[in-house]
Amino acid sequence: MPVLTILGLALLVVGAFLELVGAVGVLRLHGFFNRVHAVTVSAIGGSVLPLLGISMLSLVFENLGVRRFYLAGMCLAAALLILVLAPAGAHALARAAYRSNEVAKDFTYDAIAEDRVGWD
Amino acid sequence: MIPLIVVLIFSFFSVVATYLAVVERDLVNSAVFMALQGVCYALIHYTLMAPDIVVTYIPVSSGLLPILLLAVLRKTERYEK
Amino acid sequence: MEEVIIRTIEFVVLIYLASATLFIVRAVRGPTAFDRVLAVDALSYDLAVFMTILALYLGEPMIAVGAVILTLWIYSLDIYISKYVESESIGD
Fold first, then answer.
1. Which of A5, A17, A80, C19 lies deepest, with the highest CB count within 10 Å?
2. What residues of A are in contact with residue C34 (Cβ under 8 Å)?
3. Residue B58 distance to chain C (closest CA, Å)
4. How many domains does chain B have?
5. pLDDT tens, position by position, for chain A (120 residues)?
């Protein structure tokens, strides 16, 4: 059982560090597409890893009874959902921002610019 | 102690989000601010030990209300005069 | 051993509150609608973790349903906003 505790605590602390890094990146970076990168760090590293860590830590708490398995399963389900849904939502937002005229597009290299002729 | 800090911080930010949703000229931003206010209220309800209200409040305030506003905005104008 | 876990959780909760505050500041200041939607998105993933940490800290596992529901509905907000802006800019 100490293996589960140590692994869960390590995942929790590493996830909290990545969450803080992603939050500072969202606040400080310039431009929309840089912020998409920071949000990816914050969503995958800062939300999926701590959810796995909590689902391991909740198995250690013996005094919660049978309900600790419910908490572990709920954390595992939330981790799987975030792992699927956060990149999908970020890709949809980045595609909409690239095709609209509101965001400043100052790229050093734009790979899909020549495909963009027939869009509008 | 931690639930009290959470309720204080998020009630302050929900007031800010409500004020910005009222005075904003771009109505898409107003829909996003309504979703932000819904998330803040959901966390306050959750901290005050009412998870059944959270289950009904999140779909209404951050799912159904912005899509109703966007469906109306698609028929009319985006920017308020 | 449970004492160490409780102390670590109290430390992690403060980090998550600070991150949520930074996300809300970006959601209020963001220049375009996309920045605001992105900040609300990251804030909700942050708060999903926060809800499960709070359920473990307060000793009430049955209140942890909110994390899954918050994740699913905020994803729908992304899809609404991107579909609206895309159909408007192309001309519909």
1. C19
2. 32, 93, 96-97, 102-103
3. 7
4. 1
5. 688 889 989 999 999 999 999 999 999 988 888 889 999 889 899 899 999 999 998 888 888 888 889 999 999 999 999 999 999 999 999 888 888 877 877 788 887 777 766 665
Smallest Cβ–Cβ distance between B54 and the set C66, C74, C88 belongs to C66
Asked if B27 is an interface residue toward chain C (Cβ–Cβ < 8 A), one would say: no
By CA distance, what is A54's nearest residue in C?
A: C53
- Domain assignment present for residue B80? The answer is no
Question: What gap in Å lies between CA A56 and CA C36, rounded to an integer?
Answer: 33
C28/B74 touch (CB, cutoff 8 Å), yes or no = no
- Other CB atoms within a 10 A radius of the CB of residue A53 amount to 26
Q: Among residues A26, B79, B78, B11, which one has the least CA distance to residue C41?
A: A26
> What is the sign, positive or negative, of the torsion defined by CA atoms of A40, A22, A79, A49?
positive
